[in-house]
Design brief:
By secondary structure, this protein is mainly beta.
């Protein structure tokens, strides 16, 4: 049987441990802190939700937040949160699958895309397996995850058989088909370099 002194000592130790645990989770006791979190929602007012914390303001440097970003969250001693920005680096360029009859012409980049948050970049040259690219030809279809929400068009570089050496390339709405439009002086290759948009 424990003495009263021993029981009081055990009770005091238990209370100290409980207070330490509570303090470790209380910003006003702990002070400011930071943590890593995964963005679970991007809100229309520019805030984000991450790991169960809602409506976190974002630093100006955190442009184009996206669900799935691993970010740094700061919490001040008042318990307010700030999202500093993503810690994940760009995964690098991912090759695109070309439509039947299309190939990389052997010069320039291979057709590929880079995703940075909600920003998509395209690059690469595409040519036909033989002949020229007919008007309205589908060069490739973008993966669903990187398709723009609306149709868009760009003037891009092409072979220099005509001047200026540009051609219209369009991404169709919904299907994500990348097509060329040129009724005469058909190109032997076109470039995706410089195409960029947000999703």
């Amino acid at each position: 049987m424990k003495s009263g002194h021993s029981t009081n000592r055990d009770l005091g130790a238990a209370l100290r441990r409980s207070a330490q645990r509570a303090g470790a989770q209380t910003p006003s006791v702990r002070g400011s802190d930071w943590r890593l979190a995964t963005v679970t929602a991007v809100n229309t007012d520019g805030t984000v939700d991450a790991d169960g914390i809602e409506d976190i303001r974002c630093a100006e440097t955190y442009g184009l937040p996206a669900v799935g970003d691993v970010v740094i969250l700061d919490q001040n001693s008042m318990g307010n949160w700030l999202c500093r920005g993503r810690t994940t680096t760009a995964s690098g360029w991912t090759n695109l699958t070309l439509a039947a009859g299309m190939t990389n012409p052997g010069h320039g980049w291979t057709a590929s895309y880079l995703r940075e948050g909600r920003r998509i970049w395209l690059r690469g040259r595409i040519g036909p397996t033989s002949g020229t690219i007919a008007d309205g030809t589908t060069l490739l279809t973008l993966p669903e995850a990187i398709r723009p929400s609306a149709a868009a068009a760009w003037a891009v570089a092409r072979d220099s058989t005509t001047v200026p050496a540009t051609i219209r390339v369009e991404i169709t709405s919904g299907t994500g088909a990348v097509r060329t439009y040129q009724s005469s002086n058909l190109p032997s290759w076109v470039a995706l370099d410089g195409i960029t948009y947000t999703i």
